[in-house]
Design goal:
Distance between the termini: 43 Å
Order of helices and strands: HHHHHHHHHH
Largest sheet: none
Number of helices: 10
Shape: globular
Oligomer: single chain
Radius of gyration: 17 Å
Number of strands: 0
Strand content: under 5%
Helix content: over 70%
Length: 170
């Protein structure tokens, strides 16, 4: 995978593997990105770190959805949701719902809506800004595609970039 790790004779950590997966995804090597992300998540699970596995699985699902890998994104988001439910972690559950809704939003918008609305509601309760923003933007895109422009605008304005002072008031 990485010559530096091989030369040092050490195995990369799950964090290092996941960082390489992100780089591979961003450079367009989706196959290698999926392999590395799965290896990172498997290693985290083997080490008992379900939080890492779930949060990184949801994050990777969003990247896969953006790359058009809907089925792979849905699969990873569902695994992330299961881990969040096992841990009883509301932010991880919200993040995985956002990832699942985002992945489904372009191909199966009706199926995406309940996940996005659940993510928005839970993200608001636990102050998950990134999670809420992802879900709101995806939900706004669905509303806009259906001609519901006022509702889309309202959702979008709630997810628009904010200054530090407006973040504090949220």
């Amino acid at each position: 995978m990485d010559e530096a790790f091989e030369e040092a004779g050490i195995d990369p950590t799950s964090d290092a593997l996941f960082a390489h997966a992100i780089v591979a995804a961003l450079t367009g090597d989706v196959v290698d990105a999926m392999r590395l992300a799965d290896e990172a998540i498997d290693r985290a699970l083997a080490e008992g770190d379900r939080q890492f596995a779930g949060s990184h699985g949801a994050l990777f699902a969003i990247l896969l959805a953006g790359a058009g890998e809907t089925d792979a994104a849905v699969q990873r988001a569902e695994i992330a949701y299961a881990l969040g439910a096992q841990l009883g972690n509301p932010l991880l559950i919200a993040f995985s719902n956002a990832a699942l809704g985002y992945a489904l939003s372009t191909q199966e918008p009706d199926r995406a809506i309940p996940y996005l609305e659940a993510a928005i509601a839970m993200a608001d309760r636990v102050k998950g800004l990134m999670t809420g923003d992802i879900a709101r933007r995806a939900r706004a895109s669905i509303r806009s595609a259906r001609g519901e422009h006022a509702a889309a605008f309202e959702l979008f304005t709630r997810s628009a970039p904010r200054s530090p002072s407006t973040l504090a008031s949220r």
